Amino acid sequence: MTEQTPQKEPERPPEQRSRDAEFWAQRVERLEASEIPAGAADVNVRGRREVGALQGFGQLWQKTYRVRLAGIEASPEEVVRVWKEKFPEFQPPQNRFYPSLAGVAPGELLFISATVGGMPVHTGVRVIYADDVSFTVMTPEGHPESGWNTFSAHRHDDGVVVAQIQSLARANDPVYELGFRLVGSTAQEAIWTHVLKSLGAHFGVNEPVDLHKTCVDPRLQWSQTKNLWHNAGARSMLYTMGAPARWFGGMFRRRG
Amino acid sequence: MKEERKAPETLHSSLHILRLEYEELGHTDQRRIDMPQAQVTMDVRKVDDSASVIDIRGELTGFAEGVLMEAYEQASKGGVRAIILNFEGLEYMNSSGIGLLVTLLIRVNREKQRLLTYGLTEHYRHIFELTRLDDAISIYGSEKKALEAAGQVER
Asked: What are the pLDDT digits (tens) for B1-20?
């Protein structure tokens, strides 16, 4: 038996660093990008506040998409590592993601250029949480949705790795709400199904995607009608229409 | 060779592919997908006829959904108007845990109750601000202050 010398208990800091501290992004008042990846537009990201599941206008939906990656040898950590690395590649062609150089990491911005009904929509999301087996993105003002998407993987009791996308979000304004009810919701479900199918295909798996959706809050938040001001669809349209003027402006500045 | 992005004119075909994939959703996978067990305990204390405290100890993640909702149902018995979450024992929280708090808040609002919290460390206060939960959930420094605020709701 070893004799132990009584030791003075080390002084504890006022607040111990939480185990999850390194996984969370720092809070920012407004979004700022130090660099904009080639091909991306920060028009509906720069200066915007982040909005969560409580701030939007429409009905609040929780949608959980899952695919069983049966037969793969990769661990949930490996699946999520690949998912982070190839996130833009797993998107459908009309939904382009432009990560920053740091990739999917806490606090990083992912710019999005999507095509909706033939019209470009420039927006983005910020990674607010990322650990070895999951990452979560949060939307800015003007984005079609107000809320979060969490991408994760875990091992099921039977040993099979399951990849999952869970969104908890509502439409950001009345126009988006109408759009979601008409076609947007179906289109969005098709996008995340495509992402999970692409992830599965990367690991050589072709399994069906399971979708479970719940309307968490059926009420409309009429006080958030003001969110229309930031509508990224409308602003992207104006941004696109203003492209020739920006081009000429750039020419004159270069010559001047 | 660098892969070229599809031109806009291929939008129709890509949407068609998406539609086919989406239709697969109709054939829902019926196998039950269970989650690992929650590493959390939640004890309910009924302070008085109008308020209950839920003491949360451990990890608040997506796996805690059943435990949290069960605790809420227990805490709500007897027409309680204020549900107070005690986070003094919170050791870990991820974004799915935040999602649980949102769904709890919606339930609480639907029942015309009020959700209050205390015992959040500086770190978890920042997370409440980051996710803008603090817009809708009142945060207090102690149980006494939370109970005082809950009492004011009743008056």
From this structure: 344 444 444 445 555 555 55
> Three-state SS for B114?
strand
Cα three-residue angle A31-A37-A40, rounded to 5 degrees: 80
Chain-chain contact of B123 with A51 (C-beta, under 8 angstroms): no
For residue B135, give the nearest of A226, A140, A54, A230 by alpha carbon.
Answer: A54
Could you give the number of structural domains in chain A?
A: 1
SS3 assignment, position B12? helix
Share of chain A above pLDDT 70, in %: 91
Alpha carbon distance B63, A136 (integer Å)? 16
The pLDDT-based confidence of A12 (bands split at 50, 70, 90) is: very low
Helix (H) or strand (E) holding A254: helix A243-255
Cβ atoms within 10 Å of B78's Cβ, excluding its own: 9
B148 is a domain residue: yes
SS3 state at A174:
helix
State the average pLDDT for chain A.
Answer: 89
Chosen for mutation from A16, A19, A22, A27 (greatest number of chain B CBs closer than 10 Å) is A27
Give a yes or no: residue B111 inside a domain. yes
Residue B34 lies in a domain: no
* Selected residue of B5, B11, B33, B110 to mutate for chain A interface (largest A Cβ count, 10 A): B33
Summarize pLDDT for A87-122 with one digit per residue, the tens: 999 999 888 999 888 899 999 999 999 887 677 889
Q: Could you tell me which residue, A47 or A33, shows the higher pLDDT?
A: A47
Does a structural domain hold residue A165? yes
Model confidence at A161: pLDDT above 90: yes
Which residue does chain B place closest to A185, by CA atoms? B22
Q: What is the ipTM of this complex?
A: 0.83
Whether the model clears a pTM of 0.95, i.e. scores above it, the answer is: no
CA–CA gap between residue B12 and residue A104 (Å, rounded):
30
Asked if B8 is an interface residue toward chain A (Cβ–Cβ < 8 A), one would say: yes
Q: What is the largest CA-CA distance in chain A?
A: 84
Residue A129 backbone phi and psi in degrees, to 5: -150, 135
